[in-house]
Design brief:
The chain has 324 residues and is mainly alpha-helical. The chain has one domain (7-314): Rhodopsin 7-helix transmembrane proteins (Rhopdopsin 7-helix transmembrane proteins, Up-down Bundle). It has helices at 7-37, 44-73, 79-113, 118-121, 124-148, 158-165, 174-211, 219-225, 228-257, 267-291, 293-303. Helix 3 (79-113) packs parallel to helix 7. It is globular and about 75 Å long. The N and C termini lie far apart (56 Å). GO terms for molecular function: trace-amine receptor activity.
Length: 324
């Protein structure tokens, strides 16, 4: 049973959700343009951030509009085939996000904990292989599970529910609900938390070493150990990770426990938790914009149309006294 919504409530929902979609699309598009256009931003870490922004952009452009109609109208108007495609892409993009966050955590681990070996370990070919895994593994899992309907195997009345209720329900049986929560969320989340905890411990040790080094010590070592921007990047990306975990944990946890509660979770609650997860993709560009001065400067260049000027792709985005 889904409650009837008045025209006023539906209008407010459409307005707020459209606003979230707009911010998600254009916020992540700004990240994509900034990193793609400005050569100074072509680094391994930023290529991972670029790929994650593409994921968030696709979620806002291809998934959220259909979910908005389903949420407001309490009905799926687009047919069973598109339901499966929508469901598959939704699951794929969510899993791809957490895979990217794991890759970013590994990148920051090497940059801060092993700075002297970072450039030889984390190269562009390595990043390409990481990105291939981050996209292909979630795609294979999501499309395989959804189109085989393994996620709903053994659920009594699932086919009748889909065929007769004009809905596109988010349903996982006990096995696949546990697999999804464990492999797609719990294990990667623990890995990321462990890596960032290690990063901050090592970072403090590096600061202690640097503060106790004599003034005439090897300047290369000092400069490697004093990578302030690397530590700041790790802190910023740990916030991105924290927001992701907070936004998606309620949805993942509900998927885990719902089959053990005989699927008694109200569809309205499921839908609300799913949208809470979507909001993560809306937040990421604002986190980057707040913590990364290079993104603020790049955004000013984009808005003012300076990217159309000759040689603007080589603009220095890191100089404090740079002309705006």
């Amino acid at each position: 049973f889904t409650p009837f919504l008045s025209s006023g409530v539906r209008g407010a929902m459409y307005l707020s959700m459209t606003g979230a979609i707009f911010l998600t699309i254009f916020g992540n598009l700004a990240i994509i343009i900034s990193i793609s256009f400005f050569k100074q931003l072509h680094s391994p870490t930023n290529f991972l951030i670029l790929s994650m922004a593409v994921i968030d952009f696709l979620l806002g452009f291809t998934i959220m509009p259909y979910s908005m109609v389903r949420s407001v109208e309490n009905c799926w108007y687009f047919g069973i085939t598109l339901c499966k495609i929508h469901y598959s892409f939704d699951l794929m993009l969510c899993l791809a996000s957490i895979f990217h966050l794991c890759s970013i955590a590994v990148d920051r681990f090497y940059a801060i904990c092993y700075p002297l070996h970072y450039s030889s370990k984390i190269t562009i070919p390595v990043i390409r292989r990481l990105l291939a895994v981050c996209w292909s593994a979630p795609a294979a899992f999501a499309f395989g599970v959804v189109f085989s309907e393994a996620h709903a195997s053994g659920i009594e009345g699932y086919k009748i529910l889909v065929a007769c209720s004009s809905s596109c329900p988010i349903v996982f049986n006990k096995l696949w609900g546990t697999v999804l929560f464990t492999v797609g969320f719990f294990v990667p989340g623990c890995i990321m938390i462990g890596i960032y905890a290690k990063i901050f411990v090592i970072s403090k040790k590096h600061m202690h070493v640097m503060n106790n080094m004599p003034g005439d010590a090897n300047t290369d070592v000092r400069s490697q150990l004093s990578k302030g921007k690397d530590r700041k990047a790790a802190k910023t990306l740990s916030i991105v990770m924290g927001v992701f975990l907070i936004c998606w944990f309620p949805c993942f946890f509900t998927i885990l426990i719902d089959p053990f509660l005989n699927f008694t979770t109200p569809l309205v609650l499921f839908d609300a938790l799913n949208w809470f997860g979507y909001i993560n993709s809306t937040c990421n560009p604002f986190i980057y914009g707040f913590f990364y001065p290079w993104f603020q400067k790049a955004l000013k260049h984009i808005i003012r149309g300076k990217i159309f000027n000759p040689h603007s792709s080589t603009t220095n985005l890191f100089t404090k006294n740079q002309s705006q």
